[in-house]
Design brief:
By secondary structure, this protein is an all-alpha fold. It contains 2 helices and no strands.
């Protein structure tokens, strides 16, 4: 695999990840993700 192909694949994956991240932010998923992460974190510590 040439360097040019690897750079192209990395660029596409970064753009795709950014697009999904922005989609999640603008569709209002941030609050749900943070709530779930907090719940899981508190269970791991043993508080919740």
């Amino acid at each position: 695999m040439t360097r040019r192909v690897r750079i192209g694949i990395c660029t596409v994956l970064i753009l795709l990840g950014t697009a999904f991240l922005l989609y999640g932010i603008f569709s209002g998923q941030v609050a749900g993700v943070i709530a779930k992460a907090t719940h899981i974190c508190l269970e791991c510590i043993g508080i919740g």
